[in-house]
Amino acid sequence: MHLLIIGGGLAGLAAAHTIHRSAAKDDTLTITVVEPKAYIEVPWATLRAFFDCRVSETCTMPMSNFLAKHPKVTHIRAKVTSLTKSEVTLDNGQKLSFDVCLLATGARKSLDILNAYVSASTSDSEEQALESRRDALAATGKNMFAASSILIIGGGAIGTELAADIAGFSAMQNGPKPSVTLVHSGNHLVPELRAKGATKVLNMVKDMGVKVHLQEKAIEKDGKWFLESSDQPIEADLVIKTTGVYPINDFMKVGLSHSLDDRGWVKVDDHFRVPGTEGRIFAVGDCCDALQKTGVNAMGSKTAVAKNIIKTLRALRQNMSPDFLTGLATKAEGPPVFLITVGPKKGLAQTPFGALTWPLPQLKNRTMFIFRAKMELGL
Ligand SMILES: Cc1cc2nc3c(=O)[nH]c(=O)nc-3n(C[C@H](O)[C@H](O)[C@H](O)COP(=O)(O)OP(=O)(O)OC[C@H]3O[C@@H](n4cnc5c(N)ncnc54)[C@H](O)[C@@H]3O)c2cc1C
């Protein structure tokens, strides 16, 4: 039996780890992960890695570390360019058939450095790939510090954390500091936070010297930037857009277009199965519309996804149609905790008990919870 996983990010590898462990004695199972990058990266630590090389070195790790602990898994460094109900085609022309497939291709962010899959070279060595990724992360931070004024468009979690990190880390350095302006169209920063927590974050960000404009849009006229409502000019030597996430599921448009929703996200039923694929294709993480797009959900779904895939493989082995399987595990949102850093020392955790500024934010600042991702991947 062949399980093909498309995307070796947190969702794909957490599922691979759990399936590998549950099917340890099954000699007939092979698992292939198709992933262009030669390394694993913990995305929620990436912004911090722009400014702190210790984070850059720990939030990126060689894929071979994962493979050494998961001998049933083969890694193919490539991108999938098309998918049908039984086969994928890769960007190197290779075709691979599968019994069951798991889609875990994530989503594109408006800040390009976060989309490492786009420019990932599949021919350099693992060491070269890691080194050039770490160099690119450091260069991004240097480029930001070299600007005299930075405009960040989008005050979601990414824009807000980035604005505070630029202000906080540049304050710790000698030399000129960039001025930072954050423009957000919503009525409070970080939509995932409740209003009270968002106000605390706003005050922390302002205390760090960031100029914040809420319920505003930044517009460009002749290469200069202005606030839309008042035409007030915005200093902007460097403009960074952090406005959203977008689907990257075009490889399904020919063979499985009916399995994409109107916006291009992969549709799934309650058991992570993609409709119209006879129960053989599953999807998890940011690529689909199953749950909120968080790392907690991407990794936390691993047990349910693994259980359902193992049941499906068993059914196929017995020549049963997996379409009619019962007793499958059901998708569920992770714990209702949302945690954001505000610069290198502060932050806010929204929990069922209220918005806390201690101790979870300090723990995140100290560790970036990289250990949590490693644990979920069996590393
Ligand atoms: C800056 C930032 C901060 C965040 N902060 C938090 C946080 O505090 N808490 C939280 O819970 N979540 C956070 N998240 C979200 C979290 O990181 C994601 O929800 C999670 O990484 C999604 O995992 P995934 O595996 O679905 O996608 P990804 O981790 O993006 O992995 C997808 C993988 O698929 C590969 N791929 C893409 N296309 C193809 C293709 N055609 N063929 C083969 N492979 C392909 C990519 O190379 C990539 O490795 C943050 C994200 C970012 C970017």
From TrEMBL:
<dbReference type="InterPro" id="IPR036188">
    <property type="entry name" value="FAD/NAD-bd_sf"/>
</dbReference>
<feature type="signal peptide">
    <location>
        <begin position="1"/>
        <end position="16"/>
    </location>
</feature>
<dbReference type="Pfam" id="PF07992">
    <property type="entry name" value="Pyr_redox_2"/>
</dbReference>
<keyword id="KW-0285">Flavoprotein</keyword>
<comment type="similarity">
    <text>Belongs to the FAD-dependent oxidoreductase family.</text>
</comment>
<dbReference type="GO" id="GO:0004174">
    <property type="term" value="F:electron-transferring-flavoprotein dehydrogenase activity"/>
</dbReference>
<protein>
    <submittedName>
        <fullName>Apoptosis-inducing factor-like</fullName>
    </submittedName>
</protein>
<dbReference type="InterPro" id="IPR023753">
    <property type="entry name" value="FAD/NAD-binding_dom"/>
</dbReference>
<keyword id="KW-0560">Oxidoreductase</keyword>
<keyword id="KW-0732">Signal</keyword>
<keyword id="KW-0274">FAD</keyword>
<feature type="domain" description="FAD/NAD(P)-binding">
    <location>
        <begin position="2"/>
        <end position="294"/>
    </location>
</feature>
<dbReference type="GO" id="GO:0005737">
    <property type="term" value="C:cytoplasm"/>
</dbReference>
<dbReference type="GO" id="GO:0050660">
    <property type="term" value="F:flavin adenine dinucleotide binding"/>
</dbReference>
